[in-house]
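Question thread 4412

I'm putting together a teaching handout and wanted feedback from people who do this every day. The idea is simple: show students a protein as raw sequence, then show them the structure tokens that encode its fold, then repeat with a second protein so they can compare. Below is the first pair exactly as I plan to print it.
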Amino acid sequence: MLSLDEEVRLYTTNAEREKYSLLATLFGVVVALDYLERAYVRDAITAAEYSPACTRLLSQYMTMLKLVKDSIPSIEDFMARYRLDTPAALHRIKVGVPATVEHSSEAGPETGKWIAETTQNFITFMDALKLRLRAKDQLHPILQELVTGYARFKGSKDWEGRSRMVGWLITLNGMKASEELTEEQSRQLLFDVDYAYAEFFRSLGGNKDGL
């Protein structure tokens, strides 16, 4: 007969113990991210404090997810299984970048270096699509860097191209690493990136006070 005072073990092997340890770490990362998001929304922390902390937690989440992918079909399943009520964390995970990037920052005057870097990021990403790169693990890092640099321009929150890029970032973020965009999706993505690229340069040339 099982004693009520006896400790219940979740595992019987070292492999199972490691699995539950990883799941516990993932649980902690998601909870921490939710608290961070709520603190930022309440202005309890500054953007300068929030951005690096959020980036670090998202990176930790991606690392942990790779380690437990055989046990966790999706983050939604994980939250449901362990009764995690963390909608703010779920949204941030789906977007894949801090709110300061998603909604544009107010970082101050942009420099020629920013323009050069963003231009190069556009070209790199469009070249990747033209070379028929389709998998999430090929495209997501490049697009994430593009969107992050793009968001440093204060006027970018009003650019339609930027919202399209964030939408594609969310789409890629929801895919498995080996999943690929369809031919139709790839063509639409290239069209949207080209649109954003043209809009970016029109804004630089015609509205320098808004940068």
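The second pair follows. I'd like the answer to focus on this one:
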Amino acid sequence: MAALEPSEKPISTIVIIIAMQTEALPLIKKFQLSETHDSLFPKGVPWIRYHGIYKDLHINLVWPGKDLSFGVDSVGTISASLVTYASIQALKPDLIINAGTSGGFKAKGACIGDVFLASDVAFHDRRIPIPVFDQYGIGARKIFSTPNILKELNLKEGKLSTGDSLDMSPHDEVSIVANNATLKDMEGAAVAYVADLLSVPAILVKAVTDIVDGDKPTAEEFLKNLVAVTAALDVAVTQVVDFVSGKCLSEL
């Protein structure tokens, strides 16, 4: 990610982007956010914005909503990219927080319920075997550095690999290993790409619901642990927001 000029202005507006309603509801309650019926987003999209004032922060939580055809959470990189772009354009945030669940690799020290800040992101399912296009497909980038948050909140740090499938094909596995990833999700690198494109710092907070290199089926383990791990995620996001309150970007 391109270096950002340290800002001496306290952070005022943040956007929290969350893919799943289960992950979003506890934070909506915690920060006492209200669903906002406005025309910031294009007519007809299912995206939902919640807004409120918490301490000295304007908090916006944006959830892509339920898919209009299938009625399930609009997970994946396309929805994540669109809502990140639209939110930055409409709300001009000082900081983006992408919060969500992820798979973790026990070989890299991840355990169920661990909460990580992503240090780097890359894609593992954009295979374009042509010189230079291959690196574009991987899209590796550094995430905005927050050494003080890491230290103060005692969170883990690791590389995140993003793709549009919950399971992992052999091709994906090779790419994820090449990305040196500790975590695997379906949104993070897409949010980071758009934030980078529009020069807004982004923090990625990811909680581990399933062990990708374990012996249990990913979908089964994910569903079993989702509610409990979401509780850990929401505690960590609250701690991050509390830390951010009253600080400048350069103090994170």
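Top answer:
Good format. For the second protein you could add a caption like this: The mean pLDDT is 94. Residues 218-244 form the longest helix (27 residues).
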